[in-house]
Amino acid sequence: MASIVFGGASGLAMLGLITLIHQSFTQQAAASNRLATLFGFACLAVLVLQVVSKCILTRLSQSTAARLQFELCNRIAAAPLPELEACGPHRLLGTLGGDVGAITNALSQFPTVCANAMVLISGLVYLASLSLPLAIGSVIMASLGIASYLGGLHWANYHLRQAREDRDEVRKQLQAMVFGIKELKGNNRRCVEFMYDVLLPADTAMRERLIKGTDILGAAHTWGRLSRFIGIGLLIFVWPRFWPVTSETLMGYTLTILYLTSPLDSILGWLPALNNANISLNKINALGLMIDPSKAIACGTQIPEFRSISLRNVSYAYRSPHSDQESFHLGPIDLLVMPGEVLFIAGGNGSGKTTLAKLLTGLYTPDQGELLLNKQVVDQAALGDYRQMFTTVFVEGHLFDRLLGIDANPMQLKRWASILGIEDKVDFETGHFRLGKLSRGQHKRLALLVACLDQRPVFVFDEWAAEQDPGFKEVFYRHIVPELTRNGRSVVAITHDDRYFFAADRVVELVDGKMVSSRRQRIAA
Ligand SMILES: Nc1ncnc2c1ncn2[C@@H]1O[C@H](COP(=O)(O)OP(=O)(O)OP(=O)(O)O)[C@@H](O)[C@H]1O
């Protein structure tokens, strides 16, 4: 609001300057001294008001960007995992980068646009005070110019919207290049094909649309500006032939209209930004981030007591995004996890083990069947708390560069780092990790270190030991797993290591999404 007031006041002071210039052409010398003093004050007022208004605007635009980004991050954190997985990281990053910028840009220009609208209206009032018929004629001509400009904008829009879609594809391919750089470096033909047949065509398609849209926009903008000069030409050369008007009035008109081109430009120039913001908002909406509040999972606040967890007749299906046909179906599955138990989930690749782990941990909501905690059904309202029961290490899990959400003292940190053989990867003073040059196995060990320090009742490991050397597999299955299950905590581990099935109380096996066996183990090793 302050920005609108200061911006509007500076515009009005500027308009005051124009009227003073106009009056100076018609006043006597004595009055000119007074006008000169007023002119000096008006200049000072413009300077102060514009500087203050710009400072306010900068702060406003930065705080808007920060708020918007934070809000979007919160929505991402609250959105259901399957919807985020369907978006893919390239689209989410694109939204957090480009779309937030586009919306911020439009929002932060809004106060300036309001201030300019105030100036424009005041200018029109001043013009009407000089000559009402001329003012009406000017408004009609300006409206025609603006209408044709809006037509061009609408046309440009179509191409710019398409370009926004294409940009997602380019971002996806750039991500593939960054993450697949080793594969590209090692195979020159693959690299050339990727560059010329994948990346370049995607980028070219996007740029062609962008160029087309921007060209149309530029032409519309130029036409919008020119139409004002055509209007001034009509006023000066044509109007006086049909309607008597003094040369002072015409001069006042020309000066004022020339000045008003700047606020009008700013308002018309804002429309493309508004349009981009609209495209971005639709994009965010299409990604499912404008989530239905009823679908948002409330953040869990406390870790519930653990007496039993069970899946009862649970089914879940992935669907193809285009046809809504099931691409993979898991279940129906019944599963029970008791305190202190070690449960292994085995099965071939693609049999549904990770999907089952995501259902168990509440990251996916079953299509059918129920999730029960302590024999009570976990409904939507309880899901947030239910998720706090688990500490997980997934195959593609992310490792933050420090301990977050865990109260661990340096002694515990040192002890686990030493068991896991990664003392040199941890800064015990700050609790930060040295993630720079980690091998895959060390990365997994750090992830396990974080899990071991977490005081939650159920550990879920997805093929944790797959990248460990034989010696450390022994340590994991024979020492770490038993230690973790002391004090009534449970371990659910997806594993292909059938040599170590003896370490489990129970092994369940999945084949094509169905549980084919569930057998008791735990024989003396
Ligand atoms: N987000 C997803 N969207 C669609 N389909 C998926 C998704 N995640 C997994 N799938 C499909 O579901 C099936 C089961 O996948 P899942 O990851 O659960 O198997 P898995 O038993 O853990 O396999 P692996 O041993 O190879 O890790 C696979 O056919 C996979 O292609």
Automatic annotation (TrEMBL):
It is a multi-pass membrane protein. One of its GO terms (molecular function) is ATP binding. The keyword Membrane applies. Residues 1-276 form the ABC transmembrane type-1 domain. Residues 309-525 form the ABC transporter domain. One of its GO terms (biological process) is peptide transport. SUPFAM superfamilies: ABC transporter transmembrane region, P-loop containing nucleoside triphosphate hydrolases. It comes from the Bacteria. Pfam families: ABC_tran. The chain crosses the membrane at residues 36-57. GO terms for cellular component: ATP-binding cassette (ABC) transporter complex. InterPro entries: AAA+_ATPase (IPR003593), ABC1_TM_dom (IPR011527), ABC1_TM_sf (IPR036640), ABC_transporter-like_ATP-bd (IPR003439), Cyc_pep_transpt_SyrD/YojI (IPR005898), ECF_ABC_transporter_ATP-bd (IPR050095), P-loop_NTPase (IPR027417). Its main location: membrane. This is ABC transporter ATP-binding protein YojI. The lineage of its organism: Bacteria, Pseudomonadati, Planctomycetota, Planctomycetia, Pirellulales.
